[in-house]
Amino acid sequence: MATIYHDADADLHALSGETVAIVGYGNQGRSQALNLRDSGVSVLVGNIRDGAHEAAEADGFRVLPIAEACAQASAVMLLIPDEVMPEVYRDQVAPHLSAGDLLCFASGYNVAFELIVPAADLDVVLVAPRMIGVGVRDAYVAGTGFPAFVGVHQDASGRARERMLGLCKGVGATRGGCIEMTLHDEASLDLFTEQGFGPAWGRVMMSAVELLVEAGYPPEAVLVELYLSGELAYSLEKIRQVGMTRQMDFHSRTSQYGSVTRGARYLALDGALKEKMGAVLEEIRSGAFAKEWSEQQAQANELFERIRAIRDELPFTKWETAARKAFRIGDAGE
Ligand code: NDP
Q1: Most CB atoms within 10 A, among 24, 188, 230, 314?
Q2: Burial (Cβ within 10 Å: 0-12, 13-18, ≥19) of residue 126
């Protein structure tokens, strides 16, 4: 079984006498800085001069250039986008760290795929919320907490785990539960959700839409039936609350009989699906994806622009816009 830490396993005193630099005051940075401060931890912010810099000052934080913030702190939480992190780390963070400092990542990606190799005399840990930034703050304020993936990559001081758990408690993650793993496993699971599970699920939805529209059903009705009504989102929440197998009790007997008997037919696709997803997982684990993405980043904006232009012309996108407008869903209904 995995090791899962809760509030009782963590002690904020592990950070006594420490100053934590939050580098990057964006989605995660703002929420984690506010939560740590409210937990009684000494926090300063390192940020480039931009809107986020002003926001941090308006929230009452001392804001310094990144290099200076790292020099003044004993613990640094790197909360800038993963793509820019290696360069910022090399130029503005690493030269200002001292032996025994704690370096904390919110994503294992750069360390796992060796785009950042921290000095051996640092404590290096992971506190990766499984929650968007605004949710990290909302959960802390509500007193509910959120889950996080955590891990110790290097323990130079002999206190890396207790310092990591201090941070977890300070941001509110131990209220939800922190599951320990390597940074490589965290990064791989995250990428697999994006590249394996998500696209496979998306393909199932698109196939169902195409099949039903080709069979003559109006696209608006198909989309409302499959997901625009919100019933699917509601069912997913029930799956979260009671479990995948037990949530079937919420459906009609006709639905239960039909889905169990017909569901068995899809078992035949299992092998092909696992083969495709397994190949994706292998590319992730071997580092091949990270290497490819590093090489492609310079051209990525052009690719995203091309995809957006194609996307906007797809019949599917037009059906969705029409249906969302007709049922006043989101901004299409304005
Ligand atoms: P953001 O995109 O919100 O950016 C954070 C900050 O970094 C902003 O203040 C931004 O400034 C600044 N920044 C951008 N480019 C640079 C640069 N070249 N040099 C210095 N600062 C820069 O990041 P997130 O909060 O989304 O992500 C931070 C970390 O948290 C990442 O490791 C991510 O994987 C992880 N994470 C994110 C989650 C999320 O929900 N977003 C969930 C779990 C983990 P500006 O505003 O001017 O661009």
Answers
A1: 24
A2: buried
Minimum CA distance residue for ligand 1 atom 35: 106
Q: Is a pLDDT exceeding 80 seen at residue 177?
A: yes
Alpha-helical (H) ranges within the chain are 27-38, 51-58, 66-72, 85-88, 109-112, 133-142, 160-171, 183-192, 198-214, 219-223, 231-242, 253-263, 270-286, 288-313, 315-326
Q: Name residue, tokens 């002003």.
A: 54
CB hemisphere CA count around 293 (13 angstroms): 15
Whether the CB of 25 sits within 6 Å of ligand 1 = yes
Q: Which residue has 């290096």 as its token pair?
A: 124
Q: Averaged over 62-74, what is the pLDDT?
A: 98
Q: What CA–CA distance (Å, rounded) separates 213 from 216?
A: 5
Please report, as a single letter, which amino acid is at residue 329.
I
Any ligand 1 atom below 6 A from CB of 92: no
Count of other CB atoms within 10 angstroms of residue 76: 26
27, amino acid identity: N
Average model confidence (pLDDT) across the chain = 95
